[in-house]
Specification:
Length: about 280
């Protein structure tokens, strides 16, 4: 009898997992379509890419002729990453956050929250689908933007060998940063009015990556979303970095672990907030 119950429980559990997975995948597809079909989405990233290339490429010919073509491809890649990547991550994160900030609020305005309560779509599935969909949506143009930026260096005469280290930097720094940005923006927008979130996020982002006016900030800690220690340790460039700053393997690994961990914590808090709001709405 015990074996029979166990036998029937396994297919039921498998069906439940399959249903949950299907719900999450469906939400991911919806988010991708909603974002990628917006003309302003691509125009925003295109504008950010042009600004980035113009600001960082002013002295490109001097860099190429005096340094980048005279060193190994690895050293050239490290120079590009160490001097440009934090700015790229900061600018891309700024654009990505503004494009994602209204996603949950828009669902609430369209009444999708009521539909969610009336169906089997659980809050955790909803949050996971929203998160994964928007992460994929913003990661694709971010990667394309950086590849376009690298192509400028290749056209200028820098060796193709810079591509592999730069792609590694994308995986090590940019992808975790996207996870944190999307998680934070979705959570922040669920707590405050949309207009306040649209104004507050840029200010908080500037504080998080620049530490303006010498204020205490996470910009130079293991929580740095631009990978301060990860970039400093794995892509250190002598003569450019501050020699007084010690980038260690421990700090670099802690930086890589802390950023996605913080994103996960924000997602759990987001699910909790949405569940509380749903119960309050149901009782009203």
């Amino acid at each position: 009898m015990m074996i029979s119950h166990t036998y029937h429980a396994v297919p039921l559990q498998a069906k439940r997992i399959s249903r949950i997975t299907g719900q999450v995948v469906a939400l991911v597809k919806v988010e991708l379509l909603m974002q990628w079909r917006r003309r302003g989405f691509w125009l925003a990233f295109a504008g950010a890419t042009i600004i980035f290339i113009l600001l960082t490429g002013m002295n490109l010919s001097i860099q190429v002729s005096t340094y980048l073509t005279k060193v190994s491809s690895q050293e050239a890649a490290h120079f590009i990453i160490f001097t440009r990547f934090s700015f790229f991550t900061g600018l891309s994160g700024f654009v990505a956050g503004l494009l994602v900030v209204d996603r949950i609020v828009r669902d609430q305005r369209l009444g999708l929250a009521d539909i969610q309560q009336a169906t089997s779509l659980h809050t955790v599935c909803y949050v996971l689908g929203k998160f994964c969909g928007n992460c994929l949506a913003v990661m694709v143009p971010c990667v394309l933007s950086f590849l376009l930026f690298l192509s400028v260096y290749l056209v200028a005469g820098v060796t193709v060998g810079i591509l592999l280290p730069c792609l590694l930097a994308l995986c090590v720094v940019l992808l975790p940063a996207c996870l944190l940005i999307v998680a934070f923006v979705l959570f922040f927008a669920s707590l405050v009015p949309l207009r306040m979130a649209q104004i507050g996020f840029p200010l908080l982002w500037i504080w998080a990556i620049l530490a303006p006016l010498g204020w205490p900030s996470i910009a130079t800690t293991i929580l740095s979303p631009t990978g301060y220690f990860a970039v400093g340790y794995w892509f250190y460039t002598s003569g450019v970095a501050d020699s007084s700053q010690q980038f260690t393997l421990t700090n670099a690994i802690a930086n890589l672990v802390a950023v996605p961990t913080l994103a996960l914590l924000l997602l759990l808090l987001l699910a909790l907030v949405l569940e509380i709001l749903a119960r309050i709405s149901a009782c009203a």
